[in-house]
Write a structure and sequence with these properties.
The complex is a heterodimer.
Chain A: E1 5-16, E2 19-31, E3 36-40, H1 47-55, E4 62-67, E5 70-71, E6 79-82, H2 94-106, H3 112-125, H4 141-154, E7 159-163, H5 171-188, E8 191-196, H6 199-205, E9 208-212, E10 220-225, H7 234-237, H8 241-257
Parallel strand pairs in A: 3-8, 3-9, 6-7, 7-8
Antiparallel strand pairs in A: 1-2, 1-4, 4-5, 9-10
Chain B: H1 2-9, H2 12-30, H3 33-66, H4 77-83, H5 85-89, H6 102-133, H7 135-148, H8 157-164, H9 167-192, H10 196-204, H11 209-247, H12 252-261, H13 265-293
Helix pairs in contact in B: 4-13, 6-7, 6-9, 6-11, 8-9, 9-11, 11-12, 11-13, 12-13
Chain lengths: ~260, ~300
């Protein structure tokens, strides 16, 4: 069951004109099936770049991304992405946005009726069944992100990639969505990788937290196993010594050993 | 368990409030607001229609006074009414092969515009998609487009007559070549402005180029495309009248030329009015289609 996803000596540099900037170097990480991994780091440390490398939207410079021992170097629905700014198509209804993905991924595999049921099922999973005929412009930011998650889940991905999915939301909405994601993870046992800059979010949701050093030439500084039993309850965790310790470890890494330097 | 409970209770609340709102909304609408809405829309119509009517009346009055005397260069409105009454009142009479109502002539011209502009719309969107997507196509084609689009419609006519050896396809070609440029240029700009997010969605879903064109590119660029189409339809209406004056046939443009040759000035003035009104209607039609199609695209 080990090495479901393997990042093998990955490096990424961008070249503009004659200058080459190394963004990431020597990234090694093995993720098991069903694991929830967060990647945390200061702005500009290349965590979004790392997620784009896994999704295939950006190509690695050296090294390889291996999913079930096969190299992946192009985007595909088996690595679905929940984008930071939801990226729903504004001219389609909520239902049609999910339908676009389902029709593409399951054409020939499911009948029309099965697909319709599958779309409805995924909208219900994120509690958006009531808004299926609304357009993205008519629903709130949190609801849009829920639909974005439904669209990604509906692709039945091997790995769900979440790129700061709750970054643009207010604290209360964010808490609701975090609970929804935990619930979905418990129910479907997906492998999930989430980019975040929120320490509490990382500790609450993750099995392991990957902490990135500052860029340029960022790499993995430390990997912390959270080791809290699931299901986790937000309120009970606040006083849990293990939670407090994990939180402190991440904070110490981010603000003591790898402080964000303005100039960098 | 407090928060998961809250979230699982969520779908029930919006659904029930939604149902309530629907029940309440119906009696409200059919009740007292009907008379008020009728009154409001009547006032709205009056506000929009009355001022132009007053201005038209004043213009007609001044015109009548200025050209009433014997030997005036242009006919006054009263003469136009007297001599071209049949053209004004009945657009669809048929008294012979060349003695037909202006409505028929406008329809003939519109038919040519429909064909020429239809081809321009399809070719324009496809060419625009090519130029908008490929940097090399843009570098190669854009300078050529920028030069060609400044060529006046009628300058194309002799060469298209030489190529097609027939007046009708030549007129259609002139319409096409006149109205295609704004469609190409606006489509290209619209496609260049498609956000990277939509490209990412398409890549993750592995949409093929044809799916990407119809499902992402066209809807995302639709507001721009319709701006181009609106400019294009205006230009093609300008071009058809001029082209028909030279090619002959049944259209409204030829009617003006024919009336000029037989010194029927009142007929020309009535025809001008028809052309203006039809051009206005075409513009509004494309604008309305654009509003309808791009409903959600700006959200």
């Amino acid at each position: 069951m080990s090495a479901y996803l393997k990042l093998d000596h990955i490096a990424k540099s961008f070249t503009r004109g004659s200058t080459t900037t190394e963004v990431l170097r020597d990234i090694n990480l093995v993720i098991d099936k069903g694991e929830f991994v967060s990647i945390i780091g200061h702005s500009g440390c290349g965590k979004s770049t790392l997620l784009n490398l896994i999704s295939g939207l950006t190509r690695v410079t050296t090294g390889a991304v291996l999913l079930e021992n096969h190299e992946v170097n192009a985007p595909g629905p088996e690595r679905a992405v929940v984008f930071q700014n939801h990226s729903l198509l504004p001219w389609l209804t909520v239902y049609d946005n999910v339908k676009l993905a389902v029709d593409k991924v399951f054409s020939g595999k499911k009948s029309r009726a099965e697909r319709a049921e599958w779309i409805a099922h995924n909208l219900d999973l994120v509690q958006m069944g009531h808004a299926r005929d609304k357009r993205p412009g008519e629903i709130s930011g949190g609801m849009k992100q829920r639909v974005g998650i439904a669209r990604a889940l509906a692709m039945e991905p091997k790995i769900l990639l979440l790129d700061e999915p709750f970054g643009a939301l207010d604290a209360l909405t964010r808490a609701h969505l975090q609970d929804s994601v935990m619930e979905i993870h418990a129910r479907l046992a997906n492998t999930m990788i989430m980019i975040t800059h929120d320490v509490d979010e990382a500790v609450l949701l993750s099995d392991r937290i990957v902490m990135m050093t500052n860029g340029p030439s960022a790499t993995i500084g430390e990997v912390l196993g959270v080791g809290l039993p699931r299901p986790r309850k937000r309120l009970e965790l606040v006083s849990n010594p293990r939670y407090v310790a994990a939180r402190e470890a991440v904070l110490r890494f981010l603000y003591e050993r790898h402080r964000y330097v303005e100039a960098a | 368990m407090a928060l998961p409970l809250l979230t699982s209770a969520r779908p029930a609340t919006p659904a029930s409030t939604g149902a309530k709102a629907r029940v309440l909304a119906l009696p409200k609408r059919s009740g007292p607001s009907l008379a008020a809405r009728l009154g409001a829309s009547a006032r709205n119509v009056a506000l929009n229609v009355a001022p132009p009517l007053v201005v038209v009346a004043i213009i007609l009055l001044i015109w009548q006074m200025a050209f009433q005397r014997q030997g005036a260069a242009l006919p006054p409105p009263s003469t136009i009414w007297k001599e071209a009454k049949d053209l004004i009142l009945d657009p669809f009479f048929v008294n012979g092969s060349q003695d037909i109502g202006l409505g028929w002539r406008v329809l003939t011209s519109l038919q040519r515009v429909a064909v020429g502009f239809g081809i321009a719309a399809v070719v324009g969107v496809l060419l625009g998609a090519l130029v908008g997507q490929s940097v090399w196509a843009m570098r190669g084609l854009d300078p050529i487009f920028q030069v060609l689009r400044t060529v006046p419609p009628l300058a194309w006519l002799p060469i298209s007559l030489a190529a097609f050896r027939d007046s009708n396809p030549s007129a259609i070609f002139v319409i096409f070549i006149t109205s295609v440029w704004p469609v190409v240029i606006n489509t290209a700009v619209g496609i260049r402005n498609i956000p990277q997010d939509y490209h990412n969605v398409a890549e993750v879903l592995r949409l093929n180029p044809i799916e990407f064109f119809f499902k992402i590119m066209v809807p995302a660029a639709a507001p721009y495309i319709f701006t181009g189409l609106r400019v294009g339809i205006g230009l093609s209406w300008l071009a058809i009248v001029a082209a028909e004056m030279l090619t002959g046939g049944v259209g409204i443009g030829f009617f003006i030329w024919d009336a000029w040759n037989s010194s029927r000035l009142p007929d020309i003035i009535v025809a001008l009015l028809y052309i203006g009104l039809v051009g206005f209607a075409l513009d509004r039609l494309v604008a309305a289609a654009g509003v309808l199609v791009t409903r959600g695209a700006r959200a």
